[in-house]
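thought: fold this chain, then report.
action: predict
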Amino acid sequence: MRLSLLDRSRTRADAPDAEGIEATVARAVHAERVGYERFWVAEHHAVPGIASGSPAVLLAAIGARTSRIRIGSGGVMLPLHQPLVVAEQFLVLEAMHPGRVDLGLGRSLGFTAPVRRALRRDHDVPDTFEADLRELRDHLAGTGEVTARPAAPAPVPMHLLATGQGIALAARLGLPVVVGGPVLDSDEIGPALAAYRRDFVPHLGSAPRVTVSLDVLVADDDATAHELALPEAWAMARSRRTGEFPPLEGPSAIRDQPWPDQVRRRVEESLDRAVAGSPATVRRRLEALAEGTGADELLASSSTYDRDALLASDRMLRELLG
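observation:
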């Protein structure tokens, strides 16, 4: 499998949000240095623990600090934008960093009801996602009703972040698909990906391509890796209890807090799902994943409180799959 990173610009407790953005850029530089294929950033709005709300702006900064690694969005939430505006943003990126830009697209409408209201998506609207994808693809190819600028010699590649019906949509549109989350652990993933490959309709010579996205952390031993995975597992458990996704806290600070039974159970479930361990443990988990999905690429979306440990994990994962 090819190997890429997805960074969500996670913030840390008692640290300014700007540090999350600075750390994302630094991680991209490190990812290029150790040989990753791509570096993707996310779009989340008004989430306390995440600083990346504008992928195009952040990718411009990353592109300026790197020279080889492909850069992209994982992803732009298309229902929140006009297709022409997204096309223009990514055509500008392509003009600045030719041949290096990818456009991953999703359909999330926002983390909470107040965020959806702020994004003007708090009421029922027609589902135009497939039509918007087609329109965006035309704009990127220079074949739309209007010509998006700056014109590019070749379209920016599009990828669809999908679960369930989205996988079938990627097949209809001839798009690479990125699959992550609980669907990877379900019995439906094998048949869904088989149907994707079987029903794929090529567009301009495209072929089926599957990327799996999941948390991966590598350390010298399993216990250390699970300690690295604890801050994200804790944040996820807290978000389900409080409705607010918090900045990352250090393991010692987490263990000093009360652990209600429900939170403890959710943390343990998250740690069980995470691919976190020694190189040997992670290799076994990833080999099983590759066999079950036939994935062409792994998009590791890990985060932890200790930034140096995160960079070390990135390096070890690259060496493991190198």
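thought: worth noting. The longest helix spans residues 222-242.
final: tokens above.
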